[in-house]
Amino acid sequence: MHQAPGFLSTRQRRLAWLGFLLTALQAPVSxxxxxxxxxxxxxxxxxxxxxxxxxxxxxxxxxxxxxxxE
Length: 70
Fold this sequence. Notes:
Keywords: Membrane, Transmembrane, Transmembrane helix. There is one protein chain. The chain is mostly helical. It has one domain (about 10-60). The protein contains three helices and no strands. It has helices at about 10-35, 40-60, 65-70. The protein is elongated, with a radius of gyration of 16 Å.
């Protein structure tokens, strides 16, 4: 059984992981350094990138036959 390809290329997936890690690490640092709630934006961006990574991962884990049947 073959795995279906995801919608992200390998390079895009690596960049998405890098972006997720950077924004996830930047949020608590900026929360400690800045008095306003602007650090929440970094947290929202990290969650959106994580959602894209999870969707791509779910698409890759599906068998190739299931994606061609739709």
